Amino acid sequence: SAHADTPRKGGRIRVAGATAAANDTLDPAKQSNQTDYSRGTMLYNGLTSLDSSLTPQPALAESFSTTDAKTWVFTLRKGVVFHDGKALAPADVVYSLMRHKDPATASKAKVLADQIDSVKATGPNEVTVVLSAPNADLPVIVGTFHFHIVKDGTTDFNAGIGTGPYKLKEFKPGVRSLVVRNEAYWKPGKPYLDEIEFVGIGDESARVNALLSGGMDLVASVNPRSVARVKGTPGYAIFTTQSGQYSDLIMRRDVGPGMNPDFAMAMKYLFDREQMKKTIALDYAVIANDQPIDPTNRFYFAGLPQRTMDLDKAKFHLQKSGVTGKVPMVTSPAAMYSVEIALLLQQTGQRIGLDIDLKRMPADGYWSNHWLNSPVGFGNVNPRPSADTLLTQFFQSDAAWNESRWKNPKFDQLLLASRAETDQAKRKQQYADMQTMIHQEAGIGIPMFLASIDGHSSKLKGLSPIPLGGLMGYSFAENVWLDA
Amino acid sequence: MNRLILGLLVRRVAISLLSLLAVSVLVFAITAVLPGDAAEEQLGQDATPTALAALRAQMGLDVPAPLRYLKWLGGIARGDLGTSATTQLPVGELVASRLPNSLLLAAVTALFSVPIALTLGIASAVWRGSWFDRVASTGAVAVVSVPEFLVATLAVLVFAVKLRWLPALSYVSDIESVGQVLRAFAMPVLSLCCVIIAQMMRMTRAAVIDQLEAPYIEMVRLKGASPLRMVMFHALPNAIGPIANAVALSLSYLLGGVIIVETIFNYPGIAKLMVDGVSQRDMPLVQTCAMIFCAGYLILVTVADVCGIVANPRLRHR
Amino acid sequence: MKNTVQPLDAGTAPAARGRLFRRFSGFGLSGIVGLLLLAFWLLAALLGPAMLSRELAGSAAGEVFGPMSAAHWLGTDYLGRDMLVRVIDGARYTVGVALLATVLASGTGTTLALFAVASSPAVDATLSRLLDTLTAIPSKMFALIMVAGFGSSVAMLVATAAVIYVPGAFRIARSLAVNINALDYVTVARTRGEGTLYIMLREILPNILGPMLSDLGLRFVYVVLLLAGLSFLGLGIQPPAADWGSLVRENIGALPEAGASVIVPSLAIASLTIAVNLVIDNLPGRAAREKGAR
Amino acid sequence: MGASVVVQGLRIQAGGQTLVDDLSFSIAPGEVLALIGESGSGKTTTALALMGYARDGCRITAGSVRIGEVDVLNLSSVQQRALRGRKVAYIAQSAAASFNPSRTIMDQVVEPAAIHRLMTRAEAEAKAVDLFRELALPEPETIGSRYPHQVSGGQLQRLMAAMALIADPDLVILDEPTTALDVTTQIEVLRAFRRVVRERRATAVYVSHDLAVVAQMADHILVLRGGQMREINPTPQILAAPSDDYTKSLLAAARPVPRVSPPTVRDSQLLLDIHDLSAGYGPVDAKGQPAKMVLENIDLRLYRGQAIGVIGESGSGKTTLARAVAGLIKPCHGTILFNNRELKPQLAQRSKEELRQIQIVFQMADTALNPSQTIESILARPLVFYKGLRGEPLQRRIRQLLDLVKLPATVAGRLPGGLSGGQKQRVNLARALAAEPDLILCDEVTSALDTVVGAAVLDLIAELRRELGVSYLFISHDLHTVRAVCDEIVVMQHGRKLAQVARADYDRGPHHPYYELLARSVPELRCGWLDEMDSARHTTPLEPQT
Ligand SMILES: Nc1ncnc2c1ncn2[C@@H]1O[C@H](COP(=O)(O)OP(=O)(O)OP(=O)(O)O)[C@@H](O)[C@H]1O
Ligand SMILES: Nc1ncnc2c1ncn2[C@@H]1O[C@H](COP(=O)(O)OP(=O)(O)OP(=O)(O)O)[C@@H](O)[C@H]1O
Ligand SMILES: [Mg+2]
Ligand SMILES: [Mg+2]
Q: Where would I find the ABC transporter domain in this sequence (chain D) (predicted)?
């Protein structure tokens, strides 16, 4: 198999990400999409990195330890140098973590960074992070893209100076970037390739065609409908990453029909999950159970009984809710597959006399105008590095993105407790309870977890899934090699 | 005569500046009215009030809108196109990296499409009613009626994926030789030609036929002129006005309207820059792009108007 | 069209047949082909949705991108829905909305152009520059502002498509009209003291109608395609309804296998636009005018 | 060397209508055949058929035409093209409609030479300039660089003649070539034609309604009526002893008889008072002077019910005068009073009533009719516009108007393209009449009409004047016509008013020498008049050249 092969050095590949816009950035704090993340992992490293089960592994930090999950000590790896030759020092780490807290940075990770009280250099190779409250997942958090380590004091990131496996040769936002091997990379033997040309191609069929015409070696985000074509072309293969990404139906509990819990329940019973998986995702998905933790996650609660389509129950709950007439439902291409899911819902709805009035909105402005505002609508949640982040961001009562405004003090307590909990078994139980609560009470319907599909030339080896997203959780660069 | 046209040009340039100003105001007003600002779009799902406030401050969006506009306008007067809200790069730089690409693509397309369209249009006017006319006219309509994205995708499937004659993307890396340019441009140009040829061709045909019905053509015929001469020397000069306008309209499409082609062939042109700008509510960027399109359009239509006036002595000697 | 299907009265049969024949022969063979096609789509748009069983429409359980079969004559789409139903349903939007928007765009553009030409040079210059300015507004932006401002509805869609194409129609019409305006017979009308409206509509319009109609035929194509783009932006026609352009776009994934779901709507668009253009090219009035006699 | 022409059994049809029926005649090489007949009788149609050409909507359905050895009706299109413009040249009836408006005159005049590759461009231009000179065109060296709309109607017609003659054709078809010319110019042009015919012994077909002109030019005359040949005979015989009744009536109407003028003109009210009027074309300079001055210091008074004739050589500014009165060009100097009120210089400033009161009949009938409106709607418009007529009264009035100008009611449904030259001219007149104006500016209204119809129109004009007190500014190049209907004659030359002659003084001298010259230049209805003029010319110069 591919993994058994010994990596070969040399060669140049072309890779296409799924977005290309003038706001492409090399500033870790500002990165917002997979092309940014992919470029980030070429140029930078974090203190830790996440493996195929999203467990943090040492990276720039040789080791990390804590006693109370509140004060964390990271020991830095020795002999690591930035692309410009400067050695990695604690000051760089302090700067890289603390800058997220500064509002002027406008960091996307500010919410996560806010739990950090202080970051201090406590030795020549040691950094101590003190949190405002215990969090057992800190090593996970610092393993994410936004917390990549940059040089102390950097404000202009266009040079892309990091400690990563490749050095930046060219960067044209929205067009392409070119990186070459970092000969001084700290991981012995890595990286394998001489050069990577990375472009963003927004159009899916253009991406696939570019791959199949020999113009690309690896392309991200292949639509399930194109899979057969890629597979059917000799010399090309598909690489699937099942992750926790999902598109969810949001029924707000504070306004609209969702105020009545029976309406939400009716909708949850309306999902024909099997069919959605089959016709929308063409089986590149796993069925979900109206709760956000996916089976790849170590805290997934497999014991929760699967909810299936049940028109009788749906009808019962609908009648009980007393909701009649047209129910407006907002969808958008911005939330992956939400239009299709809504269409199927609409059809099933007709069978129990529910008239769903689809409102398809432009992708432009969807997140700022409609998401969180529409009484019934769709959202889309990308894979998160940890169950805690996910639940904190989307389900905690006062979370900014509490999509359905579902408020449950007991849930909030559990969440806090689990965050500080270092006993894995206990923690697992707490998560199971929380999943059950969401499954039952929240105004959120999650039909399935979607897989990311990448297409690649069969010569490209070394790909293995990391459930943060496609392209090996966007960190393919240092792991792949070209077969002769 | 030259004085007249010069006068017209001077007046046009003056009015064009006004138009550009109007465009910038309009675009600004629209961006202001559109829900969502650059900061919200940038943060998308990640938007929180604090993050928004921070980003707004960073982008300069905390300044009141009219003030922002005036500042931008002041910059323009000094030749500074402003800084893109989302990328924090100078707009001039962003545009400069894309505009030549767009102009190149437009030029190559125009180079092929205009002569082809005019020839076809004239030929079908001359032989109107013949099988050639029918095939050409129906064919042209059939070709435009196929959605652009379908033509482009089909071309890619056939020429890039199946036959592997041409690259699927038009701008992957540096293009060195003329041969490469041709290979890279073949499919985008083909797709664009499919879109714009019809309008020029049909208008040429209609305008020429209209002239062929004019009474003076009878005299030309009685002089023993060949159909070709009749069209080239007599009908065509009188039909220049509408034809030039159709050409101008079609070509103006090549600046701002090529978004689909730019997307499918991943060609880094200015249309995509602008559409991104709109999505991200990047006001300085959108304004600059809109003004570039407007200027291009105004240049084209002014040339068309001048053609129309030069071709019609009654207008010329008014 | 309507009176051609009336039963022929025995007494007047020869005369009526003669008239009938003349009416059709005025159209010419290709004109008749165009008319038939157009009639077909109009009927499909009017009656089609009522005639097709709703059963088929709703069946999403079918195979994705299914081939043509007895159950699904035109195969199925990307969600396994029956293509025949989708295409017939789409006819309403494409035929109705596009035709309406085109007529509005061309009508407004031509009227404005005539007005500009027939009134003073100052009005002409002002209108021309105003519309030039309008063209510079990115159409996506324009569409977005329309959705934001007025919500998305079919009426809004028609309005948006029309506004986007007004400047183009204006330009063409104006360039034709200025030439006519310089002619003696317009001067005659002026010396009579005719108002602008009369000069616009009676003196100039009939003489630019030929090229303007052919422009209209093309503009129709553009509007059909624009609709696809706009509905992609979320403007107007809401799913599950879809116009043909959107059908093509939705199902573009079937292109590599040359699936019916992408080919059929494309053919539908092509046949409709060709029909419209054939009819326009072969309008009997035009042919007669070209010959100088009635 | 001329070619013989043999026409046999020619039939031309339009729709179900037969325009020309079973026409047979022949012309010997070097001879001139005149085609005369009433307006709409098929003269132009026949002339065109000689080139194997039928207008749109018409078809040659039977017969044969041979020019020399060539069977014209059975030629391939390539052979036809070789014939046209080279062997057979055509001078069209409507010069205005026959020139491409967007190309210079020179380009179009030398075009036959270029098409048939007869000579180089330089040679052709030189030849064209010679022809311009011969045809008495002003500024022969530079007139070629103008555009068709920049020359007067008569000038354009001569330019077209130059275009036909440049290729030295064997057969020249002249369709009313001098209708728009004043008599002095006409003589020059007739001379030029005759030179071509005599010196080159070209065969010619001369279509005309003017018997006096025909008498000077033709060897034989063919009389057409309603598409049928009435008689064909040598010219002297026709003039002396016509055999056909119709021919007799044509001859009888040849010299317009003076129409009784209404009494007491002088003491009636002053209608139009033109004072010190100057006008011109082209951009206006700082002093308000247009680049090309045409009219200078014109004074003219017209009383209600009066008719003033304006004559003068082609290009002297007659049309310009009418246009200034009508408000179509802005005078640079002077005033125009109408009904003692000052007329605003521009159309837009005049009231609808003022506009109705002054109607202009354009000289170029072709271009003044909207090609896409039927005759009926053209005539209906002023009725609806000024009078608000509707329904049956409207229809009745339209029929009445058509009848007044001697047009059959059947033309009502046709478009202008389906009318003959004279018919269009009459539609133009009828349109002006429809407004029931006080003043009609008639610009060459009878120039394209045969004597019989022309006489009828003159009668009509006189009648309206008598009964309704309509006044006329009657522009014509034909002194006889002017004399027949007008109380006073204004003679113009080079944009200035040379003389004004009252009716009573028509036959009493002495007059301005130019008026005398005009009077002398009117062709007389007898053979050989032109030759006499020619010999006279050698003793006394005809025209005082400036
Ligand atoms: N638009 C114009 N621009 C420049 N010169 C013009 C224009 N129209 C007419 N002219 C010139 O003005 C002069 C007078 O023209 P006008 O039409 O008044 O002559 P006319 O007396 O009516 O002659 P005709 O009897 O031949 O019709 C002519 O020399 C003509 O060439
Ligand atoms: N396209 C046409 N269709 C039908 N009738 C036509 C058409 N063209 C001309 N006619 C008719 O044919 C007849 C002959 O026209 P023609 O032009 O030959 O007359 P003409 O003798 O030259 O008259 P004029 O002296 O007025 O120029 C007229 O009655 C005219 O109305
Ligand atoms: Mg005639
Ligand atoms: Mg004149």
A: 5-251, 272-519
pLDDT of residue C236: 66
Inter-residue long-range contacts of A426-434, CB under 8 Å, 24+ positions, other chains counted:
A427/A136, A427/A299, A428/A298, A428/A299, A431/A293, A431/A299, A431/A301, A431/A387, A432/A299, A432/A301, A432/A303, A432/A304, A434/A391, A434/A395
Q: List the residue whose alpha carbon is closest to atom 3 of ligand 1.
A: D150
Distance from the A358 Cα atom to the nearest Cα atom in chain C, whole angstroms: 6
Residue of higher predicted confidence among D38 and A443: A443
- C208: burial class by Cβ within 10 Å (0-12, 13-18, 19+)? buried
Q: Give residue A434's pLDDT band: very low, low, confident or very high (50, 70, 90).
A: very high
**DSSP codes of every residue in A404-468:** T----HHHHHHHHHHHH---HHHHHHHHHHHHHHHHHHSSEE--EEEEEEEEEETTEE-----TT
Q: Which domains are assigned to chain B?
A: 95-315 (1.10.3720.10)
Closest atom of ligand 2 to D424 CA is: 26
Please give the residue of chain D at the shortest CA–CA distance from B224.
D81
**Cα–Cα distance between D528 and D538 in angstroms, integer?**
16
Measure the CA–CA gap between C75 and C263, rounded to whole angstroms.
Answer: 11
As to burial, measured by CB atoms within 10 angstroms (0-12 exposed, 13-18 middle, 19+ buried), residue D245 is exposed
**Do the domains at D5-252 and D269-508 have one common CATH topology?**
yes
Residue matched to tokens 């050589």: D313
Please report the domains of chain C, with CATH numbers, ordered by start residue: 48-53+73-293 (1.10.3720.10)
Its CATH architecture, for the domain D5-252, is 3-Layer(aba) Sandwich (3.40)
Ligand nearest to the CA of D49: 2
Least confident of A191-200, A319-328, C238-247: C238-247
**Domain segments of chain D as ranges:** 5-252, 269-508
pTM for this prediction: 0.80
Q: Do C270 and B205 touch (CB under 8 A)?
A: no
Report whether pLDDT(A3) > 60.
Answer: no
The token duo for A81 is 């140098």
Would you call A58 helix, strand, or coil by DSSP? strand
CATH code, residues D269-508: 3.40.50.300
Our answer on whether the CB atom of D149 is closer than 6 Å to any ligand 1 atom is: yes
pLDDT digit string, tens, across residues B18-66 = 888 888 888 788 777 777 777 777 766 666 777 777 777 777 777 787 8
Q: Give the closest of C144, C172, C248 to B147, CB-based.
A: C248
Residue with the smallest CA separation from ligand 2 atom 11 is: D419
Measuring from atom 5 of ligand 1, which residue has the nearest CA? D150
CA angle A61, A65, A69 (to 5 degrees): 125
Tens-place pLDDT, residues B104-116? 888 889 999 999 9
